[in-house]
Design brief:
alpha/beta; eight-stranded mixed sheet
Length: 312
């Protein structure tokens, strides 16, 4: 595989001039090799059938989103490196869009790190959440922190070798139990000349505790009015489309069980435009945008725009 310079990162999610989504999540794997206690995959809370997207299915999806896509996340609920075709998928979309993946880094090795950097990928997030094994494994259940640290080193070396075009981002989700390693993680990233990414946690099930540091807590909107106003800013309502490993449209990532079925992009005659303009999807987006009557999933299940008031 020869090196491919990635397409530019999309800083602001905006619709195309035709009003179509320009950013896509394609769920290449609905499964994971770890058991993170606040993840819907790690806790087996997803009722959809576990699946790895096949290459022929991916090509159908890719060809349909190609006219509109500026950036494609090749992951959603699951570990993308479990898909044996992931590098080929990255290479395919990198011809027309910025390819983005997020991985726990366990399934990499030196050779695969080299392949990943050469594939045309534009952004690689590696989630690590700790520097020592005893802290790391409290959340990344089943993982080995030394393996991830080694693979970040290999990725960094390969990236430098090929011109440092890939945004390689080690990511640390800050909880109460790992807060004491924030500075160590920052220094570790600095030693590699990498930018440390600190992420505020989504706490769905209450099995882990947020840090007491408010800088690492998600906003909880204290009134219904502020909450609804925040929901109306969601890019999934104007610019983003999410496709599952079996081709279904998810109205957003929080609808992880596909409770609101709109359609399937793998169906022969279904197009992106057809899905985007289906009456039930248009109705959903309008309700979320009007700041008065957002859908129940936006009010009760969204972990990005989180209510800080009692929700019935």
């Amino acid at each position: 595989m020869t090196y491919k310079i990635p397409k530019p990162y999309v800083e602001h999610m905006m619709p195309t001039k035709e009003g179509m989504p320009s950013v896509y999540y394609v769920e290449t794997v609905l499964a994971c090799n770890l058991r993170c206690p606040e993840c819907v995959i790690g806790t087996d809370s997803v009722t959809r059938t576990k699946k790895i997207l096949q290459m022929n299915e991916f090509k159908i999806i890719s060809n349909k989103i190609k006219p509109y896509a500026k950036m494609i996340y090749l992951h959603k609920w699951g570990e993308p490196l479990m898909n044996k075709n992931i590098f080929e998928m990255i290479s395919d979309v990198s011809e027309y869009a910025h390819a983005h993946i997020s991985t726990n880094g366990i399934l990499l090795d030196k050779k695969k790190c080299d392949e990943l950097i050469k594939s045309g990928v534009g952004t690689v997030i590696v989630s690590i959440d700790g520097i020592t094994q005893d802290i790391y494994e409290k959340y990344r259940v089943g993982g080995q922190v030394e393996k991830v640290i080694e693979n970040i080193k290999y990725l960094n070396e390969a990236n430098i070798k090929y011109g440092n075009h890939v945004a390689l981002l080690p990511q640390f989700i800050v909880f109460d139990h790992n807060y004491k390693e924030v500075d160590k993680f920052r220094e570790y990233c600095k030693s590699l000349n990498l930018r440390a990414i600190f992420k505020k946690p989504y706490v769905r099930f209450g099995t882990v505790k947020e840090s007491d540091d408010k800088n690492f807590q998600r906003i909880k909107y204290e009134t219904k009015e502020k909450h609804y106003e925040a929901i109306a800013t969601c890019p999934h309502l104007t610019s983003v489309m999410t496709i599952t490993a079996d081709g279904r449209l998810l109205v957003c990532a929080q609808d992880y069980n596909n409770d609101l079925f709109i359609g399937n992009l793998l169906d022969k005659d279904v197009t992106v435009k057809d899905l985007w303009e289906r009456p039930e999807y248009v109705k959903f987006r309008k309700e979320a945008l009007n700041k008065k009557t957002p859908p129940e999933i936006c009010i009760k299940k969204c972990m990005i725009y989180h209510p800080g008031y009692p929700v019935n």
